[in-house]
Amino acid sequence: MPGKNSSKQSRGDPGGALLDLPKLVSQIAETIDSSSIDDHSQGSPPDSSRVPETSPIEEKAESVSLSFVRRLYKNRGFSERATNIVLQSWRQSSQKQYDAHIRKWLLFCTKRQADPICPIISVAVDFLTSLYDEGLSYSSINSARCALSAILESPASAYPTFGEHPDVKRFMKGIFQRRHPLPRYCKTWDVNLVLQYIGSMGNSQELSLKDLTLKLVMLVALTTAQRGQSLQLLDTQNMVQEETAYTFMLNSNLKQSKPGKSTSDLVIKLNAYPYDRNLCVVNACSVYLARTKLLRGSESRLFITHQKPHKKASRDTIRRIDINVYKPHSVRSAATSKAKAANASLVEIMQTAGWSSAATFAKFYDREIEQGSSFADSVLSQS
């Protein structure tokens, strides 16, 4: 990234002129107040020679930001096939995160008449400052930094990305000091309370399909400490049934999947719990598979919706639990914290949850189990 505004040629660009933003801005304005781009109408529109147009099909199928990035790579000489592969490096969750930031960045550059690909370093930092002034958290601003790093040009012999620039790193340290990120929870809920409730539900065979589904989802989540994404990907076509276990192979990449990393985390095993049949995930799974055999038709995903039409359950459907205090992802923290309290080894916790570093568990998931006030209230009520 240059230290001053210049007509530096971008990679694969013979003209080095500013990007053609009006069409992109018109699309962005559909979801963002159009008044925020009025300032641009008074200035001359940037030259369109930097980035080639994409087809109407691409524009319709992709978000504005992804279409913008596609144009950048095409302009750098990438073939359409190569560009498609490059764009697959962004997971859907990253695309959604980056989309909002890139939209704001394009509008910001339009108002400032700044080059959105090769801006002055101070302009890009001013953009991050504007996000700080909006009250965004450190993690959100850091996400915006990553989004800019993916699209901004940088000098060939200086810093690999925008985020590696020393001024940007220093700025982010300042944000960290002024708006220090805090964990979502200082404590987590007591798994025993949930297990007591599940146990009180009785035999799985006597439950309604709704209750059976909810019971199985919670038991799988607790016994595997997996994300909702992993639960949604469980597929009966990739399932091996044993006498005391069900083993699932996941054929899709997970959040923690990385090139060169072992694929052991793509195997999820449900083990029987012989001490209490009502809490046995294998028993619940067997009953669930038998109950849903005629309902699922050709659907092979393990979890299907309990209401008609019985189709595969989405990740959000699986995660839809009471979130007044704790989010669905808190099951992961509660289960692993309970396992630690029960003296499970750190190695076993990490392997089950799919973590490669003990620091991940210690920093983000290891929480004191929150004790309810029911015991204290009972004691005091006797006085």
Automatic annotation (TrEMBL):
<dbReference type="InterPro" id="IPR010998">
    <property type="entry name" value="Integrase_recombinase_N"/>
</dbReference>
<dbReference type="GO" id="GO:0003677">
    <property type="term" value="F:DNA binding"/>
</dbReference>
<dbReference type="InterPro" id="IPR011010">
    <property type="entry name" value="DNA_brk_join_enz"/>
</dbReference>
<dbReference type="InterPro" id="IPR013762">
    <property type="entry name" value="Integrase-like_cat_sf"/>
</dbReference>
<protein>
    <recommendedName>
        <fullName>Tyr recombinase domain-containing protein</fullName>
    </recommendedName>
</protein>
<keyword id="KW-0238">DNA-binding</keyword>
<keyword id="KW-0233">DNA recombination</keyword>
<dbReference type="GO" id="GO:0006310">
    <property type="term" value="P:DNA recombination"/>
</dbReference>
<feature type="region of interest" description="Disordered">
    <location>
        <begin position="32"/>
        <end position="58"/>
    </location>
</feature>
<dbReference type="GO" id="GO:0015074">
    <property type="term" value="P:DNA integration"/>
</dbReference>
